């Protein structure tokens, strides 16, 4: 799991790393640990915009509401680029949720 987190921070194969973290987060034993690690990296003083954006994108892959809540908070981040990406992803997740609900109601 630490290897996937490192990949996210360094930007090496970050899409695959985000998918791995998403899969691992489906296990409640790992979900909190993954969320804590991502939030810690997001708030690290050494995290630049590019790193934080990769971490924001990884939040979309996580199961549960915690990732969405962090995205909502980041939509108001001081770093405008991070805030814009987080805001856009919140919109995508809301739309996906609405479409999923409409599919269940059919």
Walk me through what this model shows.
With 106 residues, this protein is an all-alpha fold. It has six helices and no strands. The N and C termini lie far apart (39 Å).
First-last Cα distance:
39 Å
- Helicity range: over 70%
Which segments are poorly predicted (pLDDT under 50) over 5 or more consecutive residues?
none
What does the average pLDDT come to? Answer: 85
Number of strands: 0
Assign the structural class, choosing from mainly alpha, mainly beta, alpha/beta, alpha+beta, or little secondary structure.
Answer: mainly alpha
Into which percentage range does the β-strand content fall? under 5%
Give the overall shape, derived from the CA principal axes.
globular
Q: How many strands, what sense, and barrel or not for the largest sheet? A: none
Radius of gyration: 14 Å
Helix/strand order, N-terminal first:
HHHHHH
> What's the total helix number?
6
In terms of topology, how is this protein built?
Elements: H1 2-10, H2 14-24, H3 28-42, H4 49-59, H5 65-74, H6 80-105
Helix pairs in contact: 1-2, 2-4, 3-4, 4-6, 5-6
Quick recap of the structure?
With 106 residues, the chain is an all-alpha fold. The protein has helices spanning 2-10, 14-24, 28-42, 49-59, 65-74, 80-105. The mean pLDDT is 85.
Feature tags:
mainly alpha
């Amino acid at each position: 799991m630490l290897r996937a987190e490192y990949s996210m921070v360094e930007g090496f194969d970050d899409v695959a790393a985000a998918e791995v973290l998403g899969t691992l987060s489906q296990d409640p034993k790992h979900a909190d640990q993954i969320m804590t690690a991502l939030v810690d990296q997001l708030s690290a003083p050494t995290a630049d915009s590019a790193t934080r954006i990769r971490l924001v994108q990884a939040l979309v892959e996580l199961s549960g509401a915690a990732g969405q809540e962090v995205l909502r908070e980041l939509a108001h981040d001081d770093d405008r680029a991070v805030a814009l990406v987080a805001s856009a992803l919140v919109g995508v997740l809301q739309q996906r949720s609405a479409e999923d609900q409409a599919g269940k109601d059919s």
